[in-house]
Amino acid sequence: MQNKITYLGHSSFLFESTDATVLFDPSANEMIENTPRDLKFAYEPDMAKNIDLILITHEHSGHCDPATVKRIVERTNASVVAPANVLEKIDISPRLKVEIKVGETFKLRGASVKVVKAVHPQSQYPVGYIVTAGGMSVYHAGDTYVYPGIEANTATVALLPAGGTYTMDDADAAMTAKNLKAKYAIPMHYGTHAKVSSDIEMFTKNIGENVKPVVLRPGQAVKFN
């Protein structure tokens, strides 16, 4: 089985590997569905299978959708990894809740997880994650601006916000991808609504020669050897 990443909309991704299947920031709420561009959440919770981990970066509705998370957990028995204030919102068994803080590293359900800093003043406790499974690593930056030390979050694939206003913009995302020395960079958190509109061509043109930009529509996937 090849490792595969599927973009589900806004900041949500499905990472499927030989070791674990990880779902980042699943959200099917109205903010995602009613958008200027057709960015409806491209995942049906009632069809979820074999999800090992659900990782949530912060409490905002486009990232933490308690109803969607509960439906997926009921079908898959997935563990939900998130800050304490996020877990408080989700009505699932306590044994499936994994409270985390920045700086922690652990192995769970076939994946290695490192919790990293995110700078998002609008959130109570934002985080990012570096997940390693199937011989590759994925950095989900969450909602974050550029900050000193972000370049230490090295990974094979970087999932970076590019919409501006609440996060880094397309130019900062391109610069960050270069500094991370990622092999691939996938933009997220752009074009979902007016305040995070972005010229994603700016991202692809300024990313440099050593990082491959991968721009996906919701529902599209990319495979990695």
What secondary-structure arrangement, pairings included, does this model have?
Elements lengths: L2 E7 L2 E5 L4 E4 L5 H4 L19 E3 L10 H11 L2 E4 L1 H4 L9 E3 L5 E4 L2 E7 L9 E7 L2 E5 L16 E5 L8 H11 L3 E5 L11 H6 L6 E2 L7 E4 L1
Parallel strand pairs: 3-4, 4-5, 5-6, 10-11, 11-12, 12-13
Antiparallel strand pairs: 1-2, 1-14, 2-3, 7-8, 8-9, 9-10
Record keyword descriptors for this entry.
single chain, 225 residues, alpha/beta, seven-stranded mixed sheet, 5 helices
Short note summarizing the structure:
With 225 residues, the protein is of the alpha/beta class. It has helices at 30-33, 66-76, 84-87, 170-180, 200-205, and strands at 3-9, 12-16, 21-24, 53-55, 79-82, 97-99, 105-108, 111-117, 127-133, 136-140, 157-161, 184-188, 212-213, 221-224. It contains five helices and 14 strands.
Describe the structure.
There is one protein chain. The chain has 225 residues and is α/β, with parallel strands linked by helices. The chain has a single domain (3-215), classed as 4-Layer Sandwich (Metallo-beta-lactamase, Chain A), CATH 3.60.15.10. Helices cover 16% and strands 29% of the residues. The chain has five helices and 14 strands. The strands form two sheets. It has a seven-stranded mixed beta sheet with strand order 6-5-4-3-2-1-14. The chain is globular and about 45 Å long. Residues 32-38 have low confidence and may be disordered.
